[in-house]
Design goal:
The structure is a homodimer of 357-residue chains.
Chain A lengths: L7 H6 L20 H10 L2 H6 L1 H14 L5 E2 L6 H8 L1 E4 L3 E4 L6 H5 L11 H14 L5 E6 L1 H10 L7 H9 L1 H25 L3 E6 L7 H18 L3 E2 L2 E2 L2 E5 L6 H5 L5 E3 L6 H8 L4 E6 L8 H15 L5 E5 L9 H14 L9
Parallel strand pairs in A: 1-4, 4-5, 5-8, 8-9, 9-10, 10-11
Antiparallel strand pairs in A: 2-3, 6-7
Chain lengths: 357, 357
């Protein structure tokens, strides 16, 4: 078993007692940090930043140098996997991600192959190994991927979408094709996440950013079922410790019970569900991660502290809570507010935990 | 009591027995119809279309000439009210609505006045009277408005928003200011909706498009509380008939019980909640309107029919269901699919209702 000075995250994700609530932020290595913007400028563009292990490592560690966070999360993008599947990812200036070759025909679905993570996504594994070495025994490193449905929406739409018309049209008209696409993506993601664990990732998170745009029936069919397949096929132990898995469906507050039954260790919760209510609904099956509205960080330090207090009180006493935002931090946030949030969690959370001997 | 040949909508909204499930579509007078696009081109721009009663009447009636729908809904825009409050609404080409004078300072909130619906929004009332006259006794006319919170987001942001950063920053930092804004908007909307009833609207709907981006606590405070104030202050009877009120919070599936307790007659439900589950949760307090995923209409006629069947079966037997989409129809939909949907509701719904003598 590897040494780890701060194992609060791993313990909380397994609902083991902790002295205080661990905290990290979705997109903590990001544009709200001037040092991130400087590194990105040096890289030239976002994709080069993702694909250069030294730079990805550098930005991954930046938030930890500023704030006493309890986890690092790999700096990467969920769309590196479809990129490695040959779709040709690029970022149009100010327009978000695009694919040169969207997947819309039967032929293009059939042509998709599962990329070898150690070669076609070797830059990610190199980044994981480098970050892990640089992190040492400070805090654990979280690896991640997008959910199959979320990736499929980008792959079919060719980029971001407001209404997911093409992806949903495929779902209604050619469910066989969508399921074949989801199957291939699921196998790719399973290999990709297991390779991250082999490279040194100590926890995993699946981001189902667009599961919340589905009806309950379709959510179970095209999103949850495939996440469950991944969870079942993941390496759950590595280097003598459990590798906890977090599932996060944004907008999935109505489906927490179903998510909790998937076999994962923890659920991400957005701010549209009370954490205490979420806890009552999932019982002791999973830990919960969240759920401060990212917009709270536009407020004063005093506001941030007050809202942190509410989230902690809503979850209540006992283990199983990882403090986080309910979605990624916005680029316009003042880093001082993040400092206020992290401090508030450190100061206010011990009262909810029994002293650990 | 006025004559009405087709009172299915009014009966269903009051949970009275009907022989079949009534149906209409959110945004049924819209860009998916070539005749709408022709009228809009004649008008020159969207705002002129809204502000010219003859043209607003013309497009309101267009979908009824094509499909046997059970209701007309006033053609207008939720932002006409802030426009009448002096914010200067305009539509930048391909960019959605914008305000020349957003409301961001204490002074600008204090300067807001409640517009007189019969003068500053006289063109809406003229359109209601004209539509009502042209409709005759065919089907009822639904009047509508945006919810106070939804309008406040546009007023503070100055237009559409992805993250509602400014509106939420005001909510966290200057709740007094936001509540003052919401109070003024609430008084404006109450007068506006009551004027629509006086002009001839036979049912009312409040569109809370952005309530779903709030935490449960804030939703109750800044959205639901103000919708409830409106519901309590509305004329609920006119021309000898009840004027049913429908509340619709998009993304509000977790708060249906709270919405149902507001005193409204019916709830709009988006496609992210099973209608049958929604019905179990709200019991017999309200009728339910919805909830086909608008993307189903990208599918074949056969797909549309199959999905309509599922929505009807999910609601189940008995009164209290108005068939609709879970959100507005997309501009790219083939009108033939709408025909397929309306036909399917007419053919498949009678089995869920006892024959009416």
């Amino acid at each position: 078993m590897y040494a780890l000075r701060n194992d609060l995250l791993l313990r909380a994700l397994q609902r083991l007692p902790v002295a205080r609530t661990p905290v990290w932020l979705m997109r903590q290595a990001g544009r709200y940090l001037p040092e991130y913007r400087a590194t990105r400028q040096r890289a030239g563009d976002f994709l080069t930043l993702c694909k250069t292990p030294e730079l990805a490592c550098e930005v991954t560690l930046q938030p930890l140098q500023r704030f006493p966070l309890d986890a690092a999360i790999l700096f990467s993008d969920i769309l590196t996997v479809p990129d490695a599947m040959g779709l040709g990812l690029y970022f149009a200036e100010g327009e978000g991600p695009r694919f040169q070759r969207p997947v819309r025909s039967e032929a293009s679905v059939q042509a998709l192959a599962v990329p070898d993570p150690e070669t076609e996504l070797g830059y990610v594994m190199a980044a994981v190994r480098l970050i892990r070495r640089e992190l040492g025994d400070r805090v654990p490193l979280i690896g991640f991927a997008g959910s199959p449905w979320t990736l499929a929406t980008y792959m079919v739409e060719g980029g971001s979408s407001h209404d997911f018309a093409r992806a949903k049209a495929m779902m209604f008209e050619r469910p066989d094709l969508l399921h074949r696409l989801l199957d291939t993506v699921t196998r790719a993601l399973t290999a990709y996440l297991n390779a991250q664990v082999a490279a040194g990732a100590q926890a995993l998170m699946l981001f189902d950013t667009w599961g919340g745009v589905l009806s309950p029936e379709r959510y179970r069919e095209v999103s949850l079922a495939y996440m469950q397949r991944i969870v079942e096929a993941l390496q759950r132990e590595s280097e003598g410790r459990r590798v906890p898995v977090i599932l996060f469906t944004k907008g999935g507050g109505q489906w927490l019970e179903a998510l909790a039954a998937s076999g994962c260790d923890a659920l991400g919760v957005d701010w549209c569900t009370e954490l205490g209510e979420a806890r009552r609904r999932v019982g002791d099956r999973v830990a919960l991660q969240g759920n401060l509205d990212p917009c709270v960080l536009y407020g004063s330090a005093q506001t941030v502290r007050g809202e942190v207090a509410k989230v902690l009180a809503s979850y209540g006493a006992g283990p199983g809570h990882v403090f986080n935002l309910g979605h990624g931090i916005h680029p316009g946030i003042d880093p001082e507010r993040v400092a206020a949030m992290v401090t508030a969690v450190a100061e206010l959370s011990p009262r909810y935990h029994a002293p650990v001997p």
